[in-house]
Every structure is written in structure tokens, then in C-alpha cells.
Amino acid sequence: MYQNLTIVGNLGQDPELRYTPQGDAVTNFSLATNRTWTGADGEKKSAVTWFRVTVWGKSAEACNQYLAKGRQALVVGTLQADDSGNPRIWTDNSGNPRTSYEVRAQTVQFLGGREDNAPPHQGQQGPGKQAPATGPVSGPVDSIDEIPF
């Protein structure tokens, strides 16, 4: 079986970098995707879905350095599930059931412009450049209209 998930969204907080006891870099961040539609009653509706993204290796360090809260990113990866194939389900402090969608990134692409105070990525110039997480990705994408799917 093969699973591939592509998400475009905005970071909900700054990425968090840590290292395993073996010295492997791992960065976590949350990514919000927004969906809007017009209901049968003609009223505009919207929904936000949150994903918890994990990035490993050198790309974890790049994501930690160049991504920040509010920055848009495209993530390609696999949805992590429990032993029965379901997302993690938990209960919040109010007793409400919640679901956590967790993604292990294969590639992360930084979208939109760079922050004015952020240094340019070594070997790359200008906004909309990319950082591969664990393999090659296509060229830079400067707007959502340019994503080829």
C-alpha cells in the first residue's frame, strides 16, 4: 500500500527543534488548513483543520530556522496512525473527544515571501524557495495558483 498526503497551510506556532539521544534533528510544528464553501442556504461557511507535522534530519534544522508562526508551507508526507490505522483520538480537559492528525513530512516547501529580517537560505536567493525534507521536490512555488495539481 502507498499513502501520500499533500497539505498547504499556515503554521500555528513557531517550529520546535530537538535532537534524539542519537543526535538526529527533529522539528515539530502545527499547520492549519482552511476550507470555505457556500452552504445550501447561501451562507458562507468555513472550517479549519489542524495537522501536527514532524520533519527529520537537515530539513528539520532548515524548517526550524526559516519557518515561523503564520508562514505558509506545503508539506508532503504520510499520515501517522495508531495500530488500527486511525488518527490519534483523545479527550480534552472538558471531556470532549478530539482527533490529532499527525504527518511525517517527506518534503517541506516554504511558500510565499521570506520575512524581511530572515537571512536568505544558503545557496538560494529570493522568496518562495524550498527545502527538501527527505528527497527531491519540484521547483519553487510563489503562490497557491502555481501548485501543479
Which terms would index this structure?
45% strand, OB fold (Dihydrolipoamide Acetyltransferase, E2P), mainly beta, 149 residues, five-stranded mixed barrel, disordered C terminus, 8 strands
Q: What can you see in these coordinates?
A:
The chain is mainly beta and 149 residues long. The model is unreliable at 116-149 (pLDDT under 50). The protein has one domain (5-146): OB fold (Dihydrolipoamide Acetyltransferase, E2P) (Beta Barrel). A five-stranded mixed barrel has the order 1-3-4-7-5. Helices cover 6% and strands 45% of the residues. It is globular and about 55 Å long. The two termini are 22 Å apart. It has one helix and eight strands, in the order ββββαββββ. Strand 2 (16-19) and strand 3 (25-38) form a beta hairpin.
